[in-house]
Amino acid sequence: MPPDDSVLAVTDAELAELRSRLLGTRWPTPWPTSGWDTGTDSGELRRLVAYWASEYDWRAQEAAINALPNRVADIGGTPVHYLRFDGERPGSLPIVLTNGWPSSFLELTGLADRLAAPSQYGGASEDAFTVIVPSLPGFAFSPQRPSLADPLQTHELWHRLMHAELGFTRYGAHGGDLGAGITSRLGEAHPEAVVGIHLMAVANPVAYAESSVTAQERAYLDSIAEWSAEEGGYQHEQATRPLTLSYGLADSPAGLLAWTIEKYRAWSDCGGDLSSRFSDDFLLTQASLYWFTNTISTSFRPYYEYARHLTRRVEQVTVPTAVALFPADLTQPPRSWAERTYNVTRYTPMPRGGHFAAHEEPELLAHDLREFFRAHRRSPTAAS
Fold first, then answer.
1. pLDDT of residue 384
2. What are the domain boundaries of the chain?
């Protein structure tokens, strides 16, 4: 299927409306505080909103997105948008990359380039992948699944995309955050096709004896509880009353931006300085994708569905599994904890980077992916 050159076409009227809303932002009454301790910093948000409304060049970003290798597949009646980066070497191992929240497919393009054409980044062509980067249902250009009880869960959409639509008989998978859960379920459900999975986060075991928990694992569980108490408010709201939140964020671009940039700052290896890891244009393009596709509401569905037990739990993953832990990411599970659920064959504590590692540290992540999957390559990998 040829690229769809019109995957994104924002009208002048839509762009003018966004600018009008930004310029007309009704700011809350300030508290006698400053900085980020009570939420998104007012000064930083005001600066970004002003730039978004006046200087930010959406048309340049729109053209760049449309220039990507966009495709759309119909999977069981569900349209799935994806990018396809063909490997520079014939027979390159296919791999599907899955983002988390509050991210998008766009965050993975730098990583995809490095995996598809390693020789352009100082690597070897025999390590090339054919890279597939789908948009999650309800994120950007993939519409949400038709019902909360839809049996065709995202990992099954991905397998049908890779196997039935694209003809790959064997492939790898990578994901972080929400993408780590999808990747885990994909490897668990289809070990006949998935040669290995590479994760930035792991699922907790479905059951374990409290007496078996080691001191290192106990410290890890305590750190999760501490993180949930301090940072997990967003998750609780998105899992329990997501629509109440979505009305405000779908109506206010400033509110939408505030909700997302707080996470980019808190979860990245930026040392409290957003600009050290993310350009203004990057942050505003991510927010603009959510805004123009009106998908901030539907991006909350995975949280709600998981909390309501509508999403399949990961029980035991037998395919070879690599775990790459970036120090500023949300959790740092010990290897022994991951091994309760996964067949861990590679475990890599990274020297730097965070939740958005594909953007923060694409070289580190690409290197770890190449090293892990090198042992799992053989031909043929695809029917087409």
1. 37
2. 65-211+312-376
